[in-house]
Amino acid sequence: MGNTIFISIASFIDTDLRNTILSCINQAKHPENITFGIILQYNNEEGTNETCIDDLINRYNIRIKKYWFEESKGGCWARNQVTTLYQNEDYVLQLDAHIRMIKNWDVLLVREYLELKENNNKPLLSYLSPSFFRKEELGLDYDFKHIDDPYIINVPTIKSITGDYWPMFGGYEDEAHTNRKPNNVSLLYAGFVFTQGSWLLEVKNDPEHYYTGEEFALSIRSFTHGYNIYIPSQIMSWHLSRPNHIHHFKVLDGNKNHIKAMEQLYKLIFGGDLGEYGLGTERTLQQYEEFAKINIKERRI
Question: What is the pTM of this model?
Answer without folding.
Answer: 0.96
